[in-house]
Write a structure and sequence with these properties.
With 710 residues, the chain is an alpha+beta fold. Helix content is 29%, strand content 24%. It folds into five domains: 174 residues, no CATH class; 113 residues, no CATH class; 126 residues, no CATH class; 118 residues, no CATH class; 95 residues, Immunoglobulin-like. The protein contains 20 helices and 27 strands. The strands form ten sheets. A four-stranded antiparallel β-sheet has the order 24-23-26-27, with no helix packed on it. A hairpin with a 4-residue loop joins β7 and β8. The longest helix has 23 residues. It starts with 10 loop residues before the first helix and ends with a strand.
Amino acid sequence: MYQKNNDVKDFEFYYLVELTRRKIKPLSRWEKPLTVNTHQWLKNHGLYVELIPRKTLSGKDITETVFSTSTRYTDLYLKRFCNTYLSKSAGNQSLEGFLFGYPSCCVKQFIRYPYFPSSLDSNTQSMLFHWACNSCRSTPELIPYYQSAYKNIYDWYKTEYKNKILGRTYRRTINKVLASLLLSGSLLSAQTAVDSTHYIQLPDDLNENSLSYAEEIFLGVYDHGFSYEDCQTYARMFKAIIDTLPNNVQTDRAYKIEHLLRGIVQCPKCGLNVNMGYVTIVNPLRNMQMDIPYLGLHYMEMGFFSYGTDTDYQRIDIDTLKKMLYPFNLQHLLPVAGDSDGDGLTDAEEDSLWIGDTASNPDVNADSIPDGVEIAEELTRLFPKLKEQTDSIHSSIKFMPVYGMENCQICGSLHNMGYIEITNPENKRTYQIPYISLHAMAHGSFAFNGTEHGSQRIDAVELYRTMKTHSLFIGGDKDNDGLKDNEDDYFCFDPDKADSDNDGLYDGMELAAALVDKIKALPTVPSLDHPYAEYLDMDGIQLCSVCGDIIPMGVIRIYNPLINTVSPIELSYYALHFLQKGSFASEGADNTRIDPITLSEYLNSPTGVNADNTALKFELSQNYPNPFNPVTTIVYKIPAAAHVSLAVYNLLGQKVISLFEGARQPGNYKAVFDSKGLSSGVYFYRLHADIKTGGQTKHFIETKRLLLLK
């Protein structure tokens, strides 16, 4: 079982080690001094060890030793308690309780009423490292795990040390506990107990670990439909972190604001009364905040991120929570050759991705997150959006698992030995990465160290350029065509179909191409009756973060005097580069999105303006029928004598047919549009009326869209 260690003879030490090895206790702390040989002995038995310098309230320096099977816990303990004073504050005890594997209800009661009598007999209580609260639900489930570890250590200890170093009192205690263990006859596995009372089934949780596919990617535990970790560890970890956040405004760290309300809500699962209020969590360095109801915190304490009933529930955003409270794990940030500033990217990679100061600044945007971690975070969040089905504008993903597993040499987590293949349809790149690299990226690193793949590193630029296309994923776009659903409606595209007219081009790309042609055709000479462009060249160049093309710096200003005689719409040359590739969104140095509706208005494509003549009540009605084939009718109203033109245009702004041109007296009119000879698609009809009032000529312009389906 163990190789004998002559430097430590305390039974409790070996008992703690066994509980930790079995993961019954996530983390253990030993407050007596340990030798270098003992530290190595702990590492030889699969434990990670950290020395934590602390101070007593009187100012005396002490050192604690903590050990765990995962650096997740030692790292968290180090971040929270290194060089701090020993304190038994409620926040400290709550976090320690989580890390040491104590039921949260027992910790809460102990903070308020230490050593309050419980229903456990003294023998059983002496075997535990927490003081059980009365009627605790978790402790009875934990006891058999403690009993199994206790028996194994006792048998080994008795053999190795022949019971000579045990004092009489200690021997009596061990024998009593062993007697109760033998009476119970429990032989259980070494996994922690799971609370199923608050479990809510997720629709996309195929392995029933209470995490979605995307959430498993974010947390670094995805393994092709299998996961060897459930959400309970993470829910309770984040809850413990939230408990320790300061309650006052901070400028250099995350904090929380409590919003207690008058009223309670009852937990639909266990009946506990919870305040109706919520907690606001703020990370000022990343400019992020989120609200979590106290009911949600209660479910997190029970080990789950969903709260409510089985059919009516809400979900805490794990992605946002992780970004704000635990964006990376320090132990996984392995050193990288050629990385002058130690941010996880080589200087060449920073230059290629246009990070900024490549050699001397590891955190260009000063948000406390190294630049390499942010790139890894960005790509990690892109993985769940990639589909196995290929299309013409987005990268696709292919999973290639094998029969065989490997461990992360840093934290011990288990991963498939296979590969993931990513293919980019735009630049024809293909790149393979091992499963374990997803785990490393979730912890902020492109470098990883596995028992099968050894110490390796992903090429950050190669992965970036393979995963990314110019057609970026945007919110509110259910068919992933590059247009939001309301924009699809506006331009008469089908929001449920990426290629509405089946011409091989996604709707967003088709519209972008049409508007680019319109921009290129704009005159550069100012005009009073049609759009024109102004090109402002600037010194310097930019590199496209997606394809690496060199783009000169500059801005295009598009004026439309019929809309606004002062304010133009501006497009940087960088944004125009993405628009030419078929995307209204751009990233990298700009990280913006062009509003296609506003752009088309300035280009006189899908809409128009009533210029100071609303009181005259010019009206242009929607054509009927719409969609139509082959004939449709357009009705319009002229309130005063005017020169009128009514014409139909295509997406490029080119006139297809003139329906009327000439003088009109006040009245209602209609025009019939016969689409003979035209192909299916979106067209626009525009009414332009010039009216003379007060010695001046004023304009009325309005445009509406129509859809021809053949």
